[in-house]
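Reopening this ticket.

The earlier resolution said the output was attached, but the attachment link was broken on my side. Pasting everything inline this time so it's all in one place.
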Amino acid sequence: MLSSKPYDLCIIGAGMAGSMLAAVAARRGMRVVVIEAGPRFDFNRRLDQLRRNKVLGEPLWPWESTGRDVYTDSSKDELGYSYTLNRSRVKAVGGSTLHWGGMAQRLQVSDFDTASRYGLGLDWPIRYDDLESYYGWAEREIGVSGEPLRSDPPRSTPFPMPGFPMRYEDAAWVPVAQKLGIDVDTVSHARNSEPYKGRSPCVAYSVCNLCPSGARYSAHFHMEEAERSGNCLLLTETVARRIDTTGGRVTSVQVGRLDGSELEIRAKHFAVTAHAVESARLMLLSGLGNQSDQLGRNLMEHWYVAAGGFGEERNFPGRIGFTTLESHSFYDGPERHDRGAIKVEFGGGSRDPLMVHSSGGVWGSPLAAMDCNEFGHWIDVGAEIEHLPNPDSRVTLDLEKRDVFGDPAPHIQFALSEIDHRTHRRAEEILVTLLEARGLRDIRQTIAFGRAHHHMGTCRMSADPDMGVVDPDCRVHGVENLYIVGSSVFPTGGARQPTLTIAALALRLADRLTG
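Inline output:
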């Protein structure tokens, strides 16, 4: 039940940042309340969720609520498709870590000062060294399996678990890369290669966006820890609608619930951890943090590029469900003066001839023959590319579209620059070179500016209040006790997965609030 006394910390959002922050704050004795818009999923029902998805076609994570999770988008002219936001996020306890791929990587040292180093993007007001110890702490909290690599930034602590062996279909790329002089690396994962913190090692269900064994980390584990401490109250299906301030301090958060009730929550400190879209939306609804006109701007993604072709050898792709090989040979270097970072990911996906040809109207014996001839012969490779910050790429409020509470929906508009297109073209060239070197035929691009489902920016970190929304400690400029933490504060995004950096920033904020 809600306390009549103010909490020490009110957290808005129970994804990676919010759950990690809640666990550490509660562990250290703070009285915490967490507001989560979505539901809580029962871990013990994951296999049932999987069955209902495969047999009945239901969503794997049925979190959406009619009227609550509305948004609008006008990105089609830029991307060639409408950005379906609700396919790229999960509003629930655990957030998007419920369905993420599990790749856990530190940003490169260069990602923190691209403007000074390459003349592109924006420098972070902190550097890699400021986060290094928190990266190590995050790896231990989450449970990361990996091996030290030459391409990785410096580390002061080892990975908590050894890395996974290279899967068969990825290993076939090693001689191709060697022939081209391209360095390849194994991949670190927030996935147990051995038992860790009471959780199973990976047992190769190959449904990593659900993971019935719990070997792949999701943030609900930390939220449950926070609750077990006795110092944390979690409110699910509860939507933060406004943040109230007096004299430069937040006094309370106004929330609405799907049953029609309303609450006012008071605390000493407040942290918005609702990811890039909803964090910006709540701040806009509250009229806070926009003295620089930067709030909502610089919305970024990691754009995905893929290509493939047919080979003579028959593979059986996806048998363990996750990628084990990538390349950083095109991440840094002189080319990055002219385009963004590129990270090549081998063994990206599979092509099902039954789906491809049946959707084109082929059935019966011709379809069976095509399946026999093509299955396992398709080989593809992909790349994640950097999306540079762009003030025209943004989240705003749509006054014409409102949610069930009557509040304006978030409107998203991704914008691309010529540099982004240049990065994409270079990634295409790299992928085709790799496919040709492997001797494949009928090579074609399969994905252009695809979603990596990584939303960044909109509340960026800056030392100068005129350049951003939060300061280097993630405190909102001009508001004494309000913080934003997560990928929304990234000034730039590099081309490596953002989740470990989100966790590191949350731990850094936890240290500051409890120190």
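Reporter confirms the inline version is readable. The first strand starts at residue 7 and ends at 12. The two ends are 28 Å apart (CA to CA).
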